[in-house]
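ARCHIVE CARD
SHELF: 3
SLOT: left
DATA:
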Amino acid sequence: MPLSEETNIYLIGPRASGKTTLGKRLAERLGRPFVDLDAQFVAVRGETIAALVAREGWDAFRLAEAEILAETATQKGLVAATGGGVVLMPENRARLAKGLVLYLQAHPDRLAERLMADLNAEQRPNLTELGLKEEIVATLAEREPLYLSLAHACLPDRPVDEMLDYTLRALKMF
């Protein structure tokens, strides 16, 4: 996929993989607008992800998330950090595939460590009844094939400055 100024760059990966942190830095470096789809959900809906999930369930959130991605995808030249489960819906995968998709990989132990340090249950509610580590492993088993199928590049889990440098080098290939 050729990267133009109009091409949206989507960061995908599990919760706590660093999509928002890297996305902000990448957007700043590239001089592009940044959007965090989870933050956009809160701004548009006026409620947290956890509140909607508690009231209506995960399916309702996934539909709302799809609407936000659809609106975001109409814009051009963004760097967008997605929610970890955005890849679950086929229509979302089709929208993401129209941009450049970067998969932020991370080991389950590292994800658990990050989530324990910053639980943020309002924006990162539990996905299952499993314990945190088991949930991460199960979720990755389900989603990683989808992440890999969409990814134009896979970014290794490194400190953010190293990830930014790696990402900028990877973008030059496009």
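SLOT: right
DATA:
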Amino acid sequence: MSNLTGLNTAAGPNPNKSFEVVQPPTDSVSSLSFSPKGNYLVATSWDNQVRCWEIARTGPTVASMPKASTSHDQPVLCSAWKDDGTTVFSGGCDKQVKMWPLMSGGQPVTVAMHDAPVKEVAWIPEMNLLVTGSWDKTLRYWDTRQSTPVHTQQLPDRCYALTVRHPLMVVGTADRNLIVFNLQNPQTEFKRITSPLKYQTRCVAAFPDQQGFLVGSIEGRVGVHHLDDAQQSKNFTFKFHREGSEIYSVNSLNFHPIHHTFATAGSDGAFNFWDKDSKQRLKAMSRCPQPIPCSTFNNDGSIFAYSVCYDWSKGAENHNPATAKTYIFLHLPQESEVKGKPRIGTSGRK
């Protein structure tokens, strides 16, 4: 362990020379969400807080200014923006989802409840509904003007991950279940798949064209899965976020909003950019000294936000409050890092 500490000190917390967000949370970050309408970044944290910063980009530099914050009674696990960029939804260990009219300066109100912590939340603009996934093994759809869910969908196990690209929604649960929904018929499972990965699902991301999804697991592996049976030959898995015999979790998968390449981030402290169509890694960034539990692109893909902090994967006994500072960094992707490469026959290697 002493070697690792020495390495961390030498590398510093920011080996990629990203821009540091000011006044970060006091505990680990659980989710990051950019407004769909502007450069406002929201972070939820284990310190029970939901924070928002205004991010201002001027040429090659980026500045962050704290805008507002609100709190839950217990750690907050997830966040999502309404499509008009006015409102933030946040859910967590207090078993509720709050709707925060951030841009109008209003107070948060509780709009959804579960019987266990809320792990995932997403706004579905095409349906004008909020969807929430919980460790109580249910998925619930909410009209935010009503106190009871429009529909409760039983899941086979605890909800761990959720992704929506209407009409496609994919839910990852415990026991490696991946449940696919067609939101034009949201009360029926469209397809249930056992994850192509051998270990616990950590994250999912729907393809921008809604034809499939990515799934990431605790074993440093990503599966690329197409829904159409005729496209199954295009399915593959690949492994990374590994260092010798050490295997790290893939914590975050984000598609670039313009180029439709994707980013992965993991507990090894690395983030990478990939092109699934040519099966190539576009860019590998330097490893940070702590895990990256979450990440996200802004609405035009010009800013990639990622948090660097302890992810609790090695338990409380490996948490040292003296050294485990929480960071949120902003990386400005070069086009070469996120623009897909043309396919060259079958020789494209990852």
